[in-house]
Design a protein that fits this description.
Layout lengths: L7 H10 L6 H23 L29 H7 L3 E2 L2 E2 L11
Antiparallel strand pairs: 1-2
Length: about 100
Amino acid sequence: MMGKTISLEELKKIAQLAKLQFEEEGLTRFFQDVNEIVAHFEKLDQLELRDVSPTSHISWSQPPVHVDNPVEWKEEEKVFRHAPVVYNRYFVVPRVVEKEER
């Protein structure tokens, strides 16, 4: 069975309506790509999927999880040393939002 294809003239018309512009080489490559995509969808249309559940591909197994072992971080003094202002182990930054007057 011969598959459906889009003719070069149809593609030029579609490109014109979509206001797409192609060089001749680009149009030829686009023409081939579009027809390969159409052929791929025709193959998909031939599959018998009536008895296949839409969720049949979902895996119910648990994803791998890494164990979270908390570790005390002892490098904070190095970070604070590079901060312009630190107060009680917090970074002090300029106010960027003004308090709303009521």
